[in-house]
Protein: FH2 domain-containing protein
Amino acid sequence: MDLQLAMKEMEESKTFRKAMSIFLAIGNSLSGTEIKGFQLDYLAKASEVKDPVYKHTLTYHLAEYMLEHYPEGTDLYTEFGAVARSARVDYKELFDNLKRLEKECKASWDYLAKISKNDNSSMRQKINDYLTDVAQRIHQLNTIHNVTINRWHAFLLYFGYAVNEIPDQNPNDVFKMVTEFALEYRTTREKILQQRKRMAEKRERNKTRRVD
Structure:
């Protein structure tokens, strides 16, 4: 399931972990604070917060620092395939549909019991077998759902959310925010690399002219 994989991608990404620690340090430096941590929501502001001198965004400073001090890091976005896919899924609707299926299955059992009290035909048995199979599948889905929800809650706690804030966090919204940040980081990182390449080429041309 992409939701499980998305959480795993974020938790196991060394680049993301390093970026978040640097992100916090840069944010504290720019704002003159000593915040010990932040929630993922703050990532949405990374492209809005700018330094007072050069007007570079927080994302720019992060990408520049990472290239300088953590060159083995990735562009982040390419690591988050499941995160990007999960950002496009409406999990609330998915979970609501599961509840609806369970409710409709129970209603079908009740209806079958009413219309077939004295019916021992093969058709009744086929419907009974079908509903039994459906009920088992729904039970399996509910088990997966409960495990996933518990995993999601643990994931949010890991990233600094308070217990009372967890019910308000939709996976779709959280992963969309992270995906947009990762994409912005990759774009900014590539621009810095291109700038450095052009500057290196310019220096090389200047050297050639001096030699000539």
Q: What stands out?
A: The chain has two domains: 1-83+171-190, 91-168.
